[in-house]
Amino acid sequence: MFQTPLLGLVRWTVIGDEDIHCRLHLCLLQCLCEARKTRATLRPDIVPVKKVTLLIQKVEAALDDIDGTEEASRRQECLDRLGQFLHAVTAAKLLSGGKTAEIISCLKRLPANRLIQAFVVNLAKG
User: What is the C-alpha to C-alpha distance for residues 17 and 31, in angstroms, rounded to an integer?
Assistant: First the structure.
């Protein structure tokens, strides 16, 4: 299987709260948009479903470490970034492995978030 640093970088950008993490997240999303344009030249196993489920589990663990009611917005920001990544990677048709039910199962354990809920609905349809 082809290995990329994509999911490791995404994990940092989803969990991180510094300005540099925001900029890196934007760059990753832009790269995914560009990948969509050149999809035919890319390998089919860029983002395996199994690796995405591991990413979601790591984000879930990191969210558990965020304490306090003032951190509710911080949690939602993390979930928004995860949702943005998931939407971008599926729009670019880079998910491989086919077992999307695993992703849906992992996402349902996360706190409520509109972007992620929309992703689950779209993934369930496809």
Answer: 21
